[in-house]
Every structure is written in structure tokens, then in C-alpha cells.
Amino acid sequence: MKSAIVLGAGMAGVSTALALQGRGWAVTLVDRKAPGRETSFGNAGIIQSEAVEPYAMPRSIRELVDIAFGQTNDVFYAFRELPFHIGALFRYWWHSEEGRHRAAAIAWASLIAQATSTHEKLIERAGAGNLIRKSGFRVLHRTVAELETALKDAERKKEAYGIGYAALSASEMAAAEPALKTGGAGAVHWLDSWTVSDPGGLVESYADLFQRSGGRFVHGDAATLRRVGAGWTVMTEEGPIEAEHAVFSLGPWSSDTLRKFGHHFPMVYKRGYHAHYRSPEQLNAPVMDSENGYLLLPMLAGTRITTGAHLARFHAGPAYNQLEHAEEAAKDLFDLGQRIEDKPWQGTRPCMPDMLPVIGASQHEKGLWMNFGHGHQGFTLGPASADVLATMMDGGMPAIDMRPFRPDRY
Questions:
Q1: What pLDDT does residue 85 have?
Q2: pLDDT tens digits for range 226-263
Q3: What's the rounded Cα separation, in Å, for the pair 1 and 77?
Q4: How many domains does the chain have?
Q5: Do both 340 and 391 map to the same domain?
Q6: Cα–Cα distance between 151 and 298 in angstroms, integer?
Q7: CATH number at residue 207
Q8: Which structural domain, as residue segments, surrounds residue 327?
């Protein structure tokens, strides 16, 4: 029986462990924390079928100036930390050119097309259907001009990728979400995306399925991974664990940990924040306030606000500017109520400069594999990327072209 150690118990890592297990492998899942407690815990909980194109960096002078002078809540940064990001950000900007972004989108969309189907299999097996709603989410626009632009882009994506959407007038948006104080100028309702009322809980349910099916989860330190003979060993609380293969699914921790194996992956670290509120009324579905760069989400824990991207050094302290702006902007849209937690949650999204995840085999070390760098869509793409990686590890040929995702492009 083939064996593997999967490092990282977020959505990508747990999904990889399940995909290998389903092919008859003996798998040990290793993380310093319980499954689903890092970035997979703090996202928007949307399996985004509509996210058929990766997030590009703005290239117009006006948009870049707005970011530079803090005129948008989508992106925040501190000038003192900019030198840390400048190399990776420049590469991100270069890859965001229209032609290069179009090429990246072709590869990206091939994975997104498998997102809901690969999740659906795991949801059914895990018995997690109570966490899922298949009614999509809505993007509210506050001006007619903004709405018209968004609807043109939605129609373009529908024609190119076959994704479903509906245009909502201001009155239709108000009727769909009576808890809102205004329907704005209207909204785009993305119909095919699924929403999750407890993102960390869904990862936990997948991890429980893995263990019920004979898999092993242990707490351990990925930094202790080393080669032993033809295989690999890692130190855990239960002692050393050995296997023929090792998979890095450590999200933003992957880059630093892989350096000792000769890999150097530039990464844009986009930190996000969330907080929960005791709202007097609940939303029927997630609502994005496009003008102010945040999402309102009905969760089991309360109404959640998630923020845009804070370009922070990985281990730097928190900066709650975006969350505070979102709270203020939400006042004329929705009655948030009292914040539940004393301290907002924070987590880092691992974004590659070419906007595509790293999926495949190491060019330096036999039996070393990678599945990380999904940017904003690790929760969405975890099972899909796990499926294609496990196919490769098992000697098969994935149904999609994996060359754009190969690790040796860096």
C-alpha cells in the first residue's frame, strides 16, 4: 500500500488526505492545530462557482492611485512594510496584464468548474448537508453606473463560462433581503455558488470523515520533515511518522518551510479579518457591499463581516482599519448589532504572483508534492485541486492541463 504524510489540515490538506485515501493510500494528516482552525476557518464560506477568473491587480493609474492613498477598502497596507512585498507585487502586477491574465483564467476556470462537484461528494459522505445552502449570494451596488458595469461583466462571464446570474433591481434586492435598510441601486445575484454557515465546521466534518474511514490525524511540526532513505519522516506528538511521499498543503506557511528543500516561492500575503455580530435580523444569503469591500454573511456564530486584503508581513501585528471601515459603512445598510468577540479573527491568504496555485511534484526531491497557493479560493478549490494532485500521485493523468500549476514554474 502506498503511503503519504499530508502537512496542513486546512481545506486543501484535508481534501488531499481524503483524495489519496479514496485511492487506497495509507495517509497521515499532520498539523500543529486541529483541522480547519487557520485560514479555512475565517473565510466567507462561499464555494464560488462564479469565481471563474482569478483576482487581478488593478493596472489603471486611477485604481493604483486609489490604493496608494487609501481611497479603497479592498486593499490596505502600511508604507513601512511595502519593501517586503515589492518584488512579489511587481510580478503580480505583471501577470495581471490582460493577455497574461486571460491565459491564467483559462487554467483557473478548469479547476473552478470542478469545485461544486468535488465538494458535493465530500458533503454527502461527511453528512454535512445541514451546513450548505445552494441559493447563491448577492453583490449589492450603490450606484447605477456601478451596477451597469457589473451586469455587463456578469453577462460576459455567463457567455464565456456558462455561469448563472440574475439582475436584481433596487426593489427586488430589498424584497429578497428585507433585513437590509436599502436595496442600493440593485444587485447581481450569482446563482450557482454555494454558501456554508460554518466554514471551519465543514473542514472539521471532512476531517472526521477521513478519520472514520481509517485515516490518521496527529499534531506535529511540518518544519521537522526530512528525508529518510527513500521516504520521509516528520516529528509529531506521537513520535516520528514515516511515509513514502509527503505533501505540502500549508497555505501561507508553505513558502518558508520549503526553502530547505531548495524551493523559493514568492508569495503575496493577503491578510483578511472577520468578526461576528448579534444581529436582530438575519440575512437570507451573503451580501457583498461592492463599494466598501466587505461581505455580510449569515453564519451559525452570528452575522460575519469579512474584509478585503491587508498586505501585511506574515507575522506582523493586526491592523483593523478595513474592519472598522466596513462596520461604519454597514450602518446604513444593515443593523449589525453588538460585536460578539473581544478580538477579531485574522488569517493570511497565500497568493502566488501568477494567481495560480502550486499543484504537483517537486523538481528537487522525489516523493515530495505540493498543493497550496490558492489565494482567495482555497476553500472553494481544496477538493478540486486535491483530486487532480491525487490522480498524479497515483500515476494517472488528470482531465485538465496541469502545466500551468506545476511547481517548477518558479
A1: 82
A2: 999 999 999 999 999 999 999 999 999 999 999 999 99
A3: 49
A4: 2
A5: no
A6: 25
A7: 3.50.50.60
A8: 50-197+267-351
Clarify whether residues 20 and 159 are in a common domain: no
Helices (H), 1-114: 11-21, 61-68, 82-95, 98-112
Whether 109 and 170 share a structural domain: yes
Identify the three-state secondary structure at position 258: helix
Residues 298 and 381 in one domain: no
Q: Give the Cα separation of 390 and 386 in Å (integer).
A: 6
The Cα 9–Cα 353 span in angstroms is: 24
Tens of pLDDT along 169-192? 999 999 999 999 999 999 999 999
Give the per-residue pLDDT at 57. 81
Q: Are 278 and 338 in contact (CB under 8 A)?
A: yes
- Predicted confidence at residue 39, as pLDDT, reads 84
Q: Is the pTM of this model over 0.85?
A: yes
Neighbours of 100 (CB within 10 A): 14
Tell me: do 30 and 125 sit in the same domain. no
At residue 57, the 3 state secondary structure works out as: coil
